[in-house]
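TASK: fixed-backbone design
INPUT:
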């Protein structure tokens, strides 16, 4: 299935702008003290979670740890993906402090509700400085098994090739730049693929041949293209994700500023397929350089049957040292 109603989100403990990622992330800024950043990020995070749950999304919230300091832990989609066949994949990360985000206790929490039949760890590629940052690097068309990937220091062909071979995907590669002609660090900043619709900034793709290949692939897969501008990319209009809400109705999670940057005709295109859920995450976008989509790691794993389910005691979910928050 292309979309899911089950997602993982990590609630920040020490959110700040990450100096270790600033070199390749031109969307990232630093204009607040760590204390101000954390206070604002927690407020925005909790409001976003509440909006998703109100829309019918099943949100598993994991509390970030006090130690070690992982300023980008709020973006878990970069280190983990899950798949309908029970596979979980862990990814190699470019920044040293981001590698600390991979947590076995999070996998254990996921495994309490979902079946994990296979765990694949690609993080050993870090020793060769080959990186692939999950669904930041790859925008996945799960139904058609196509990965869309823009070239950057965070997306290496060797690792993507390993993913494609293991999961049976084909890959559409292209080069994309922002309005300052700088390489876009993650594909999901300028592109989204949903069930029947795709959001993509075609003008960011420099090569007319690569642009044509992206369009042809999307259209062949039955996606209506919502073409956004480079200015709208700066407002995170491409950083969105389709999820299932109440009665499996499709919603589109994106930021408040992303939705506001779209024209009326673009909004009407989107409204044909999904209901928008607008996240008030301006601080997280500005300091982290990632938006509403980056904060979501989809859970596509099979649910455990009732006889298999491990039910956490109510008091356990309330303990401060437990990573799982009900």
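OUTPUT:
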């Amino acid at each position: 299935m292309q979309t899911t109603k089950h997602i993982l989100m990590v609630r920040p403990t020490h959110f700040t702008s990450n100096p270790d990622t600033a070199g390749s992330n031109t969307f990232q800024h630093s204009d607040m003290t760590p204390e101000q950043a954390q206070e604002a990020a927690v407020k925005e995070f909790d409001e976003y979670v509440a909006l998703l749950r109100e829309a019918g999304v099943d949100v598993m919230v994991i509390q970030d740890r006090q130690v070690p300091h992982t300023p980008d832990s709020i973006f878990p989609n970069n280190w983990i993906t899950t798949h309908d066949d029970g596979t979980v994949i862990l990814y190699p990360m470019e920044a040293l402090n981001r590698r600390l985000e991979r947590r076995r206790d999070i996998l254990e929490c996921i495994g309490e509700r979902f079946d994990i039949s296979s765990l694949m760890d690609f993080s050993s590629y870090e020793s060769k400085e080959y990186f692939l940052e999950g669904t930041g690097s790859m925008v996945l068309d799960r139904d058609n098994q196509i990965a869309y990937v823009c070239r950057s220091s965070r997306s290496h062909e060797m690792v993507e090739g390993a993913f494609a071979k293991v999961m049976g995907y084909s890959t559409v590669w292209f080069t994309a730049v922002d309005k300052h002609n700088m390489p876009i660090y993650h594909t999901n900043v300028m592109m989204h693929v949903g069930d029947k619709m795709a959001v993509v900034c075609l003008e960011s793709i420099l090569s007319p041949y690569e642009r044509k290949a992206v369009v042809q692939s999307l259209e062949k897969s039955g996606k209506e293209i919502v073409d956004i501008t480079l200015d709208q990319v700066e407002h995170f209009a491409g950083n969105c994700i389709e999820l299932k809400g109440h009665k499996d109705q499709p919603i589109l999670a994106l930021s408040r500023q992303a939705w506001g940057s779209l024209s009326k005709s673009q909004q009407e295109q989107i409204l044909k397929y999904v209901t928008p859920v607008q996240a008030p995450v301006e601080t997280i976008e500005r300091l982290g350089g990632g938006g509403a989509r980056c904060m979501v790691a989809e859970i596509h794993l099979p649910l455990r049957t009732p006889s298999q389910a491990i039910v956490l005691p109510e008091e356990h979910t309330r303990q401060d040292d437990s990573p799982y928050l009900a």
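COMMENT: The chain has nine helices and 16 strands.
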